[in-house]
Design brief:
Blueprint (H helix, E strand, L loop, with lengths): L1 E2 L21 H8 L2 E6 L4 E3 L7 E15 L5 E7 L4 E2 L13 E14 H10 L1 H12 L1 H14 L2 H12 L15 H8 L3 H13 L3 E4 L2 E4 L2 H10 L1
Antiparallel strand pairs: 1-2, 2-7, 3-7, 4-5, 4-6, 4-7, 8-9
Helix pairs in contact: 2-3, 5-6, 5-8, 6-7
């Protein structure tokens, strides 16, 4: 992890969230003084589940895996975060610890924003508060889908759902499979690594996807969607 000496000022940052465009100049200057920009190298942990949570994090560039530790050697991968995504947003609402962990899958640039300062802006600027909260509530739908996926579906449907998520439009520019192991994919589906490898090979034989080393290309998305829906 390294601090960026050329940290962009919030008033002219090309990457800052569109939500912040609704702040007044004095508010933007206030938040600018309450954040720090850091670069995390591939494999570095941004924060750990259970640790003290003083910051909300905004991903400027990179690819971050968000996961829940469920045992000493077990975890559930919750989602991937890319540029424009917020992490640990719930810390604004008096959450004193991080509820999950996050690790950089490739070199990633992140803005760490003091949660107390962000809360003050919420109280001062209601439009800003509504926009940024609405943006982060969109993750709720994905979390509900993930819960349904791991609870009710059979293994074939679980892996199909996970592959559809990982190959979705949001991640097209990131070539995510190059940064994920088969175990990572298994942890998104909440099945074993062995079962994951088995079903991926089955999907290849059925012409649903194409394998090239670690890379996975979906060939027949409709069929995969049917498996995810009915699995």
């Amino acid at each position: 992890m390294t601090e960026n000496s050329n940290t962009a000022n919030c008033t002219n940052c090309e990457h800052f969230s569109k939500c912040f465009q609704h702040l007044f100049p004095d508010e933007l200057e206030f938040i600018n003084d309450k954040k720090i920009q850091l670069t995390y190298l591939q494999g570095e942990t941004l924060f750990k589940q259970g640790a003290f949570a003083p910051y909300v994090m905004f991903v400027i560039d990179g690819l971050v895996k968000v996961y829940l530790q469920t045992g000493s050697n077990k975890q559930i991968n919750i989602r991937l975060a890319v540029e424009g995504d917020y992490l640990a947003f719930s810390s604004v609402f008096d959450e004193n610890i991080y509820n999950y962990s996050a690790v950089a899958l490739k070199d990633s640039v992140v803005c760490m924003i003091d949660k107390t300062a962000l809360r003050k802006l919420f109280l001062k600027n209601s439009e800003f508060a509504m926009r940024i909260t609405s943006r982060n509530c969109r993750n709720e739908a994905w979390l509900l889908d993930m819960l349904k996926n791991v609870t009710y579906k059979q293994m074939r449907g679980k892996i199909a759902s996970s592959l559809l998520y990982l190959s979705s439009e949001k991640f097209l520019n990131h070539n995510v499979f190059q940064y994920l192991t088969r175990k990572d994919i298994a942890d998104f589906a909440s099945i074993t690594t062995e079962s994951t490898i088995k079903f991926i090979k089955e999907f290849e034989k059925e012409g649903i996807l194409k394998l090239d080393g670690k890379d996975i290309t979906i060939i027949d998305q409709r069929v995969l969607e049917d498996i995810a829906k009915n699995g």
